[in-house]
Amino acid sequence: MYYALASFPKADTVSIDRIRRKYDQTVDLIEAHLTIVFPLPESLGKRELIRHFSTVLQGWRPFTVTTGQLAKSPDHWLLLTLRQGASAVTELYGGLYSGFLGDFARRQGHAH
């Protein structure tokens, strides 16, 4: 089993879902989302992950993201770039991939 952290923004996803239906094999498994922490092995420990995420997220408040253009990730996923909120997502990503998760950060990619 793996654990991940995703945000499910309140948005009109009709266009996104239409594109996902054509290109994304996970469209029926998970709704449109913003992946904040990519899948991590359960061997890291559910409690430890929850504790770490809770500590990092404690000072965060909701923020706005606005999508931009489509891009292909280095590992061949089709994703939407962010026009607004990208710096906040990058900062959040950095905080979540600190401490014992530091070795799991994707060096070339950003959260998507």
**Tally of contiguous helical segments:** 3
Main sheet, how many strands, which sense, barrel?
2 strands, antiparallel
Relative helix content: 25-40%
Please count the beta strands (DSSP E, at least 2 residues each): 4
Question: Number of folding domains?
Answer: 1
Q: What characteristic shape results from the CA principal axes?
A: globular
- In sequence order, what are the helices and strands, one letter per element? EHEHEEH
Strand coverage percent: 25-35%
Q: Gyration radius, to the nearest Å?
A: 14 Å
Distance between the termini: 21 Å
Helix-and-strand structural type: alpha+beta
Explain what this protein looks like in three dimensions.
It is a single chain. 29% of the residues lie in helices and 25% in strands. The protein has 112 residues and is of the alpha+beta class. It has one domain. The model is unreliable at 108-112 (pLDDT under 50).
